[in-house]
Amino acid sequence: MSARGTARARHLLLAYPGAMLGVFFLGPFGIMLAVSFFQRVENAFYEPAFVLSNYARLFSDLFLSNLVFSLSLSMLVAVVSVSLAFPFTYLLTRLSLRWQTFWLVFLLSVLSLSEVIVAFSWSVLLSKTAGVSNVFVWLGLLDQPESYTPGFIAEVFGYGYLTLPYTVLMLYPQMSRLDPELMEAARTMGASPQRAFFNVLVPVMRRPIVAALILVFVFTLGIYLIPQILGQPQHWTLSVLITDQAIYQSNVPFAAALAVFLLLTSLTLIVLTFALGGRQSVGRTS
């Protein structure tokens, strides 16, 4: 193939993902951004305009505190999920290929469950009438059954159940390609298993860990059924408020402004995370 044909083929390959990005992300985002400046009409829908009142309302104590809670909760879930998934993935890669396949298929089957089923299953499991507290009473650990839902802990459990399979699947490809002699070499040089794990394995897996943290963080920000079913109103995230404004309050312009604000805030945090990771990489290599 000539150089001109090669360049044309390269442009076509780049055009396809660019077109997909424009149709399924940039187009809807542009529409949402435009609607966020529209004027809400009482007892109707909205009309085209250019008003900043929707964004000015974001800086009220209610929405700022909810934004801080949503971001903090997403960070907590990301850290908990990666902390649980990392040793699980490491042990998974130590198994035979047959057992690795079994656990990976099991994790994929967990992903087939919808968010509604997961939320109501945890609601029953943590309830007073048929929940796990009845087992604690039977074991003599509690005097009477207790209800753990709705509450913050139940909400974190629900988030963790949804995000853990994704985290394992993010870490597995890189960890399965690691040379098993790496840990053995550290042990041979006198490192304890714990020290070899944290001083050798974790630094080598730093980039997949950061990628998994970002994935879980972004994924958690978009979940809105888990906090509604498992959490109390003070534990509702910004995603729940966006749904409430768009559907129940019929205030689509303000819901669009909330969504744009949440998107820009999360993108800023992700860029800062990448910048910090790149700076640390330069510091290690210099």
From TrEMBL:
It holds the Pfam family BPD_transp_1. Keywords: Cell membrane, Membrane, Transmembrane, Transmembrane helix, Transport. One of its GO terms (cellular component) is plasma membrane. The chain crosses the membrane at residues 12-38, 67-90, 102-125, 152-172, 209-230, 254-276. It is a multi-pass membrane protein. Residues 67-273 form the ABC transmembrane type-1 domain. The keyword Transport applies. InterPro entries: MetI-like (IPR000515), MetI-like_sf (IPR035906). It comes from the Bacteria. It is found in: Cell membrane. One of its GO terms (biological process) is transmembrane transport. PANTHER family: INNER MEMBRANE ABC TRANSPORTER PERMEASE PROTEIN YDCU-RELATED, INNER MEMBRANE ABC TRANSPORTER PERMEASE PROTEIN YDCU-RELATED-RELATED. This is ABC transporter permease. It comes from Rhodovibrio salinarum. The lineage of its organism: Bacteria, Pseudomonadati, Pseudomonadota, Alphaproteobacteria, Rhodospirillales.
